[in-house]
UniProtKB/TrEMBL annotation:
Gene Ontology CC terms: membrane
InterPro entries registered for this protein in UniProt: Glyco_trans_14
Subcellular location: Membrane
GO molecular function: glycosyltransferase activity
Membrane topology: Single-pass type II membrane protein
Keyword terms: Glycoprotein, Glycosyltransferase, Membrane, Signal, Signal-anchor, Transferase, Transmembrane, Transmembrane helix
Record protein name field: Beta-1,3-galactosyl-O-glycosyl-glycoprotein beta-1,6-N-acetylglucosaminyltransferase
Source species, domain of life: Eukaryota
Length: 482
């Protein structure tokens, strides 16, 4: 198959060819050694070999020299990586073919998924050392100095499904970042206890000091994020007590630079290093959606809204009244956006301390879905001059914090949507891995969990492969400070 290494005419060429021959032999032996566990007979399976060397996105081949540093995206004969990457019951699922779009034409073989219950997490987190090791919180053994110098903060809001919180948290977890968990006050005690178990095992993950009973579309949803922001501002740099269990001997001495707020149904499309490089390009600019004109849904803030308990369900609901709502204070211009964004530390400090920002927050108490107006209004009103704000036309810039699909306007190949938002499935994977956004919203653990499984492997491979980060697109963004 391979040509014999010929005798060279010069010593210099001889050394070069000798090195090449040794490298070829080394790669073949490495490929043989790594592939052996995958076949039940203990021999290399040639049908498995091509997929074995692929990393998670685009079917690009990983460099063989990094075989000890990266866990590959596997085909149907994958070795068992226990519970540290993806979902254990789906380790034989062919994520390479799913990411390359083969699921579009013919369903790929899958398997039932046994989910971890809230009680499971309560039990498993009683032994924190074992939990961190087995369930993937030490899977990123090293971080770059660039990441250590640029810590990030995250808010994660949840009501149920701690197993999905775990999948998200594990994907974005680094010991030098900061993570605030807000468990809805209406959630079951087991959900709170399970999330508390996660936080107890990870020094830089904490439960918010003040919980909110969240009403859908209500002020409590906005207040929950702000409560986490307050806690983040008052916490010092993380100091993980389990550093000796990993090779993370370096710790960050820098305060976090950006905060990203998430629900537990989101999942990252970028690695931590990619996030850091992109946010360094942002250079203090926020990434907050801006909507004006006919899509503003003006009745949400033009009339006062109040809270009433439903006579049948007993749930608190927000209801529009006929009472006009006065315009916002300080002659502020209202802009609509998303509940989610990427906020610079200076912007978070501004919204917590500036008197005008606090006045606007008080005005938002009678607004429906105020989280879709508060961040956007602060960010886009030129009179406020908020740190990292944007004074140009709000609708004329991209928004890259999170990708959500709104069918039929947007592509939703899974065919499932809730409240107008696509619930991503396996068939959506090819478009997701090519997006420029930082996160995708949303996923359900009980709907095609193969999508989360494959994205987790994809993120893992990108993190381990140390490939160059594509930053040209982000450098051209109109809202980036130069």
């Amino acid at each position: 198959m391979f040509r014999r290494c010929r005798r060279p005419k010069t010593l210099g060429v001889s050394l070069v060819l000798l090195v090449l021959c040794v490298q070829i032999l080394h790669m073949l032996l490495e490929m043989q050694r790594e592939a052996t566990p995958a076949a039940s007979s203990g021999t290399f399976d040639t049908a498995f070999g091509s997929d074995f060397l692929k990393i998670a996105y685009g079917g690009i081949n990983n460099r063989l020299g990094r075989s000890q540093q990266s866990i590959r995206m596997y085909g149907p004969f994958a070795p068992d990586f226990s519970d540290s990457v993806g979902l254990k019951d789906l380790q034989r699922y062919d994520c390479v073919r799913a990411l390359e779009g083969f699921q579009q034409h013919q369903p790929l073989p899958s398997a039932p998924v046994k989910r971890l219950s809230d009680q499971d997490f309560i039990r498993l987190t009683k032994d924190c050392k074992q939990f961190r090791s087995k369930y993937g919180y030490q899977r990123y053994r090293t971080v770059t100095q660039e990441e250590l110098n640029f810590p990030l903060a995250f808010n994660i809001l949840l009501y149920k499904d701690v197993d999905q919180l775990h999948i998200l948290l594990r994907a974005i977890y680094r010991p030098h970042n900061s993570y605030c968990l807000h468990v809805d006050g209406n959630a079951s005690p087991d959900v709170y206890s399970a999330a508390s178990g996660l936080a107890n095992c990870l020094d830089n993950v904490f439960l918010v000091s003040q919980r909110e009973n969240i009403t859908y579309g209500g002020f409590s949803r906005l207040q929950a994020d702000i409560n986490c922001m307050k806690n983040h501002m008052h916490r010092t740099s993380s100091n993980p007590h389990y550093t000796n269990e990993t090779s993370l001997h370096q710790q960050s001495t820098s305060p976090w630079r950006y905060l990203i707020n998430l629900p537990s149904q989101q999942f990252p499309l970028k690695t931590n290093l990619e996030l850091v490089k992109i946010l360094q390009i942002y250079n203090g600019s926020n990434d907050i959606e801006g909507i004006t004109g006919g899509r503003m849904m003006r009745s949400r803030f033009a009339f006062k809204h109040e809270y009433r308990r439903h006579p049948n369900t007993g749930r608190v609901e927000i209801v529009k009244t006929d009472t006009p709502h006065p315009p916002p204070p300080h002659n502020i211009t209202v802009v609509k956006g998303s509940a989610y964004g990427v906020f610079s530390r200076q912007f978070v400090q501004f919204l917590l301390q500036d008197a005008r920002a606090r006045d606007l927050l008080e005005w938002c108490r009678s607004v429906s879905s105020p989280d879709e107006y508060y961040w956007a209004t602060l960010h886009h009103d030129a009179k406020l001059n908020a740190p990292g704000g944007y004074s140009g036309p709000p609708d004329k810039k991209p928004w890259l914090a999170v990708y959500a699909s709104w069918p039929p306007r947007d592509l939703c190949l899974s065919g499932k949507s809730v409240r107008g938002v696509c619930i991503f499935g396996v068939r959506d994977l090819p478009q997701l891995v090519s997006r420029k956004e930082l996160f995708a919203n949303k996923f359900y653990m009980d709907f095609q969990p193969e999508a989360l499984h494959c994205l987790d492997q994809w993120i893992m491979n990108k993190s381990r492969a140390a490939l160059p980060v594509e930053t040209f697109y982000y450098r051209q963004l109109p809202f980036v400070r130069r």
